Amino acid sequence: MTESQVPPPPPEGRGAGYNPGPPPASNLVWGIVTTVLCCLPFGVVSIVQAAKVAGLWANEQPEAALAAARSARTWAIAAAVFGLVLWVLVAVLIVVGVLSLGDAA
């Protein structure tokens, strides 16, 4: 073998025998639940980020997979908080009488 035919070493322990363990939790369920029950836009972002986790992990990018999992969790929490605040605001407006769900007499 000549020097030009020798493959470069795999980066930092990655290669044919690379096995970092099980992938991180993708938080996909939380993204779906918050999309349906709380806040559609934030929940969709959470689902998209959660869907990236397995692919990044399979492509030997554990740092990016962990970042996507954290981002999915953050967006799911944001959707839940925003949805809760919105429901409380609607309830307060109904009690105060500013917002009416029935016909006015």
Describe the protein's architecture and organization.
- The protein is mainly alpha-helical.
- The protein contains 3 helices and no strands.
- The termini are far apart.
- The relative contact order is 0.14.
Set down the secondary structure blueprint.
Elements: H1 28-37, H2 40-58, H3 62-96
Largest sheet: none
Shape: rod-shaped
Order of helices and strands: HHH
Overall pLDDT level: 85
How many helix segments?
3
Strand content: under 5%
- Secondary-structure-based class equals mainly alpha
**Cα gyration radius (Å):** 23 Å
Helix content: 55-70%
Instruction: Quote the distance from N terminus to C terminus.
Output: 92 Å
- The residue ranges in which pLDDT falls below 50 over 5 or more consecutive positions are none
Number of strands: 0
The oligomeric state is: single chain
Supply database-style keywords.
single chain, 105 residues, mainly alpha, 3 helices, 0% strand, rod-shaped
Brief sketch in words of this structure:
The chain has 105 residues and is mostly helical. The protein is built from three helices and no strands. The mean pLDDT is 85.
